[in-house]
Specification:
19% strand, alpha/beta, seven-stranded mixed β-sheet, 13 helices, globular, 17 strands, four-stranded mixed β-sheet
Length: 392
């Protein structure tokens, strides 16, 4: 008999009932060190006082009105994002998947409005992940994402990740509207795009007119030690997808764009009932007030250095278990020699939550404000998990 909850998840046998900071409490009272942060969502940890206060104050005032009316909290958050980024305008969603849908629509309408509807193809890369909507799985293109869901949304062309010759040739095709990529692939195994490659891609977009769409759903909001990962390369996209960390645990996403890229999106061209509602934006404003701060981001970079040093030590100490450390900032990956699912199980036994990814990687995505002592404890627990695997 099918369960009441559609069984699309391979869930761990854990049921958490409360949390504080970097710690989760299971229903049986056990405490787990959370190195996944809800898959890079809880950027300020569990039960953060500032976010709790923002949410409860707003909940006591007004929950929802819809986008039929002005929403002051939404307008305030949009101003903060515009001031802090390349963007001139924002559209708020409930998730990164919805932001992807709008990115695809915007890129295609941009060229249609310019009398070139034949420019509708969006280039994407192997190993990518852009959500699980029809557009998102078509953009990713992998069999794992698309099998059984055909016919797929047309208009995507997939390129091998890191194949510069293929990219240069594809970008010059007359039907290309845009290119979409993650500055750091998350689900694909914590694979950063080198800064020089992002710069080269920006130059190609400028040369051909193709729009540059960045998916910073997982790598954005301070995760790499800058507010957004593309800042390390000194470039700016035309369109950017944001979610996960922007709500600190409350469902919130956004699409950021330049005035030029967004010029095609007029009244009635897109909408959302819940997107940018007062509750979500109250929390989003509180997140931005903390994360979009140079001192806070400097601490993220310092903590990232401490964590990476510890993980590099693990690789050196357990060469039969680990192959390498990947990533940027507090978006780190351990490439495993043993099956990453085995490491996941032994980590659970050590009361530690990590996140699997492709290419036999486990992701380390802690709260950005994780204390130093919790970082040291995390390394110690992963060390014990690796030792258990060696003994097995």
């Amino acid at each position: 008999m099918i369960s009441a909850v559609l069984p699309t998840y391979n869930r761990a046998p854990l049921s958490f009932v409360s949390g504080e900071g970097s710690w989760l409490v299971e229903a049986d009272g056990r405490r787990f060190l959370d190195l996944g942060a809800g898959i890079a969502v809880n950027v300020l940890g569990h039960a953060n006082p500032a976010l709790t206060r923002a949410l409860t104050e707003q909940a006591g005032a007004l929950w929802h009105t819809s986008n039929l009316y002005h929403i002051p909290q939404q307008e305030a958050l949009a101003e903060k994002l515009v001031e802090a980024t390349f963007a001139d305008t924002c559209f708020f969603t409930n998730s990164g998947t919805e932001a992807c849908e709008l990115a695809v629509k915007m890129a295609r309408r941009y060229w249609s409005d310019r009398g070139q509807p034949e420019r509708h193809v969006i280039l994407a890369f192997t190993g990518s992940f852009h959500g699980r909507s029809s557009a998102g799985i078509a953009a990713a293109g992998s069999e794992k994402m698309t099998k059984g869901f055909g016919p797929l949304l047309p208009g995507f062309r997939h390129l091998p990740f890191g194949d510069h010759d293929a990219l240069h040739e594809a970008m010059r095709a007359p039907d290309v509207a845009a290119v979409i990529l993650e500055p750091v692939q998350g689900e694909g195994g914590i694979v950063p795009v080198p800064d020089q490659c992002l710069k080269g891609l920006r130059d190609l977009c400028d040369e051909t007119g193709a729009l540059m769409i960045l998916d910073e759903v997982q790598c954005g909001m301070g995760r790499t030690g800058r507010l957004f990962a593309h800042e390390w390369a000194g470039i700016a996209p035309d369109i950017m997808m944001v979610a996960k960390g922007i709500g600190g645990g409350f469902p919130l996403g956004a699409l950021l764009a330049t005035e030029d890229a967004a010029s095609c999106m007029t009244a009635g061209s897109h909408g959302s009932t819940y997107g940018g509602n007062p509750l979500a934006c109250a929390v989003g404003n509180a997140v931005m007030d903390i994360v979009a701060n140079d001192d806070f981001l400097g601490e993220v970079r310092r903590k990232a250095g401490l964590f990476r040093q510890g993980l590099e030590g693990l690789v050196a100490s357990h060469p039969d278990v680990f192959e390498a450390v990947r990533g940027a900032g507090l978006m780190l990956g351990l490439k495993c020699r043993v099956p990453n699912t085995d490491l996941l199980d032994t980590a659970y036994a050590e009361r530690t939550c990590i996140v699997p990814a492709a290419d036999n990687v486990v992701r380390i995505l802690p709260a950005l404000n994780i204390p130093d002592e919790d970082i040291r404890e995390a390394v110690a627990r992963l060390d014990r998990a690796a030792t258990a695997l060696e003994r097995a």
